[in-house]
Design goal:
The chain has helices at residues 7-14, 18-26, 45-59, 63-89; strands spanning 4-6, 33-35, 38-42. Helix 1 crosses helix 3 (45-59) and helix 3 packs across helix 4 (63-89). It has a three-stranded antiparallel sheet with strand order 1-3-2. The chain is built from four helices and three strands; from the N terminus they run E-H-H-E-E-H-H.
């Protein structure tokens, strides 16, 4: 099972600013869970948040650009996985 981490831990692990995390949550790119009075994230979200920070740093993207790029990258990964599955079904 995936562990939950606090907002502050996600910020520290990813290098994103609090405002960037909040905007990425609003855009639906990062998923959060409300526990008590605070936000919690699945630990796998750290990977996506780090990727967002790299996009910001390497390409100078704003939060909207990070969100769009992350959405497209996720979709590409899904399509590549589906392609591998279909290729595995082909007769050899």
């Amino acid at each position: 099972m995936d562990d939950l981490i606090a907002l502050e831990d996600l910020i520290q692990a990813s290098g994103l600013a609090r405002e960037e995390v909040q905007e990425l949550v609003e855009f639906g790119v990062l998923e959060r869970t409300v526990v008590g009075s605070g936000w919690r994230f699945h630990s796998r979200t750290v990977i996506q948040a780090r990727r967002a920070a790299r996009l910001r740093d390497d390409f100078g993207l704003n939060t909207a650009g990070m969100g769009l790029a992350l959405t497209y990258l996720e979709r590409i990964q899904q399509l590549e996985q589906r392609l591998r599955e279909l290729e595995a079904q082909l007769p050899r």
